[in-house]
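#dry-run=false #mode=assembly
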Amino acid sequence: MTGDKKGPGSGKSGAKVVKKTATSESELARRLRKLDAKLDGKTAERREAEKGRPDNAGFAMALRLSTEFVAAILVGAGLGWGVDQLLGIAPWGMIILLLLGFCAGVLNVLRSAGKISDPRAGAAGKEDGPDTD
Amino acid sequence: MANDPIQQFQINKLVPLDFNGVDLSFTNSSLFMVATVVVTSGFLIWSTSGRGLIPSRMQSIAEISYEFIASMLRDAAGVSGMKFFPFVFSLFMFILVANLFGMFPYFFTTTSHLIVTAALALLVFGTVLVVGFMNNGLNFLKLFVPSGVPGILMPLVVAIEVISFIARPISHSVRLFANMLAGHITLKVFAGFIVSLSSFGALGVVGSILPLVMTVAITALEFLVAFLQAYVFAMLTCMYINDALHPTEH
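#status=ok
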């Protein structure tokens, strides 16, 4: 902050008292800009520091979402295989149910990420919201 | 090899038993499951035996864990869900203590095996199915029919909802298992770095400070994960039980 205080003094080296109000206006704007830049730098710095920390949240999130996605696809493929075996309509059950499995996987991921509301969030536990896990 | 990160998950038969070709051996995994049950029930029985109006420290811990699960279940499944309290509480305490047991050096982590977590998740899944059909009859199937969907899309949406429902026990069990497995492997790998780095002379010893710091940090993190995964498992169980009790209240 000491650098800021020095700024106006050196800028008004001519000491024109008439122009004082205009100068202080522009001075203020300039100092505001400087402060903004400084704050931006601070936030970026803090963000960098947070990135470096051994953080489990991202890892847990990745694990959670990938499990949700893969589980639904596996179930879709398994059901499709079962339907094919039972009804003897060879590739069709697998094709359709695998695609439905992908849909269910995307739905699960969106639900567990809280991007869309879970209709099953329950009447009793409404205040918990969708992302309770 | 002592540095093998997978070796800690090996199942060893302690008492080989064989019934008509079915292997029922008592393994190290069984031993730690028994130990978990004994420690959990022993602690709870002992700590609540005083029944002081002003609880002792140990009684406070037992009461806090009771309150924790009871309020979680009440929030998620309502008062009618409280008859499942023994079930959810047993699951939570078993997983929590088993996870924390895994944090002791040379101890076996039972929850790092998919078969154990899958059994627990299928228990929850089966309970939800049985209770759902017993309480609501065929109304339970309304769980798969979201309201406000146009008729043409209905078969598609119902199929997707059914698949998403069947996928629950898989993600439920794999989440717990994968977290414990990955955490323990990471810990072992980083600890192994210290040994292998410090064998490179003085510079290696200095360099091995980095993995040492990481190991300490990850150990703390693992304690957090041990609790968090038990909590998540219990929380999801509560939500599934809510589905079984109130399938139509969307």
